[in-house]
Specification:
It is a single chain. 41% of the residues lie in helices and 18% in strands. Helix 1 links the parallel strand 1 (9-15) and strand 2. Strands 1, 2, 3, 4, 5, 6, 7, 8 and 9 form a nine-stranded mixed sheet that branches. By secondary structure, it is of the alpha/beta class. The protein has helices at residues 22-30, 50-58, 74-82, 103-112, 157-162, 175-181, 192-200, 233-247, 251-270, 274-287, 292-303, 308-318, and strands at residues 9-15, 37-43, 64-67, 89-94, 98-99, 118-128, 134-137, 172-174, 204-216. The chain has twelve helices and nine strands.
Length: 319
C-alpha cells in the first residue's frame, strides 16, 4: 500500500550506557523502508563510550544528536527530545532495542487507516538477549506468525489498570496526543504505566498483529531492580495508582484498581518494601474498607519479618 501524504514519523532514541548496542539501534532506524523519518538521538550523560559510538556514525548520517551534561532520567530525557519532534507519529526507541526495517512503514500505513481518536498503535515483538539471541515472542505466535491470543483494543483503560499486556517498545504514538498529555511525567522513575493510564483514559489503542521490533532483555533492566532496596519504581507505581483513583469513573474501574493494589501489596510486603506497601494499603482501604487482604498484609508488614528470601526463591522457581 502506498501512503500518498507520507506523514513524518519521529523516532526518539534514548541512550544511557548503551555503547554496545546504540549503533545497531540507530542503523535500524536509518535503514527503514519508509523515507520520511526524523531521528533524534539523545544521550543522558552516559558514563561509558556511548557518545563516542554515536559520534562515530554521525559524520555520514543525518540525525539530530543531543548530549546531556547531567543525567536527567528517562522521562525528562524523552521530553527534551520531544520538543524537537516534527512528526505526526512518534516512536520511543531505547538504544538497546532494534526496529525491523519495515516497522515504520507498516505502522504508519496502519495508523493512517484509523480514526483520529486512536492515539497508540502497538504490535508483537521478539525478545532477545544481550548477544542478539532469540528468546521468545512477546505474544506467542502460531504457524501463521500471528498471535495465538489477541490483546484487547479500543478503550483499554480498565484492562491496563489490571494487567500490563503491551510491549512498550513496539508503540507508535500520535504526536498530538503526546502534546495534549504534556509528554511523560518527569517526576516518575519509569514512564510506561503512567503513560498507558493517562493516554487510554481519552484515547483508543490498536493492535497490529505483526512482529516488528526486537526488544533486548538485559541484566540491568528496570524489571529486574524494582524490588531492590533504594529503587523508586514501586513509589512510581503507587503514584500512578493514586492517579487512577482520581481518574476512575465506574465500579468496574475501581474493581480493577483493587486487584492491582492487592498484587502490588503482596509483592511489596514480600520484598520488605515497608513504606511502599503501606502506601498501597492505605489506598486499598479507601476502596475496600473491610478488605481481609488489607488487614492480613497490614499485620504482616508491621511484623517486619525477613520475607524477601521467600519472594526471591519463588521468582527463581517461576523462571
Amino acid at each position: 500500500m502506498m501512503i500518498m501524504s507520507m506523514p513524518t514519523a519521529t523516532v526518539i532514541c534514548t541512550c544511557y550506557n548503551h555503547e554496545k548496542f546504540v549503533v545497531e539501534a540507530i542503523l535500524s532506524v536509518l535503514d527503514q523502508s519508509y523515507e520520511n523519518i526524523q531521528l533524534i538521538v539523545i544521550d543522558d550523560a552516559s558514563t561509558d563510550n556511548s557518545v563516542i559510538a554515536i559520534e562515530g556514525i554521525i559524520t555520514d548520517k543525518d540525525f539530530r544528536f543531543i548530549k546531556n551534561k547531567k543525567n536527567q532520567g528517562l522521562c525528562k530525557n524523552f521530553n527534551n527530545a520531544l520538543k524537537y519532534a516534527q512528526g505526526k507519529y512518534v516512536i520511543d526507541l531505547s538504544a538497546d532495542d532494534v526496529l525491523f526495517n519495515n516497522r515504520i512503514e507498516t505502522q504508519v500505513e496502519f495508523f493512517e487507516l484509523l480514526s483520529e481518536d486512536y492515539g497508540v498503535v502497538f504490535s508483537n515483538a521478539e525478545l532477545i538477549n544481550e548477544d542478539d539471541g532469540f528468546q521468545k515472542h512477546f505474544y506467542k505466535i502460531g504457524r501463521d506468525k500471528l498471535a495465538l491470543e489477541k490483546p484487547n483494543v479500543g478503550n483499554v483503560y480498565t484492562d491496563l489498570i489490571g494487567k500490563f499486556f503491551i510491549a512498550a517498545p513496539t508503540m507508535m504514538m500520535r504526536k498530538s496526543m503526546l502534546d495534549e498529555l504534556g509528554g511523560y511525567d518527569e517526576t516518575l522513575a519509569y514512564e510506561d504505566f503512567d503513560f498507558w493510564i493517562r493516554s487510554s483514559r481519552n484515547w483508543k489503542y490498536a493492535f497490529q498483529d505483526k512482529v516488528l521490533t526486537k526488544i533486548r532483555e538485559t541484566s540491568g533492566s528496570l524489571s529486574s531492580t524494582q524490588y531492590l532496596a533504594g529503587d523508586e519504581q514501586l513509589a512510581t507505581t503507587y503514584e500512578v495508582c493514586r492517579k487512577i483513583y482520581d481518574l476512575n469513573e465506574s465500579k468496574a474501574e475501581n474493581e480493577a484498581l483493587i486487584g492491582r493494589l492487592k498484587y502490588e501489596i503482596k509483592h511489596a510486603v514480600m520484598a520488605e518494601k515497608r513504606d511502599d506497601a503501606q502506601n498501597f494499603l492505605t489506598l486499598l482501604k479507601k476502596l475496600e474498607p473491610t478488605s481481609k487482604t488489607a488487614k492480613f498484609f497490614d499485620q504482616l508488614n508491621r511484623l517486619n519479618l525477613p520475607t524477601s528470601w521467600l519472594r526471591n526463591s519463588l521468582q527463581k522457581i517461576r523462571t
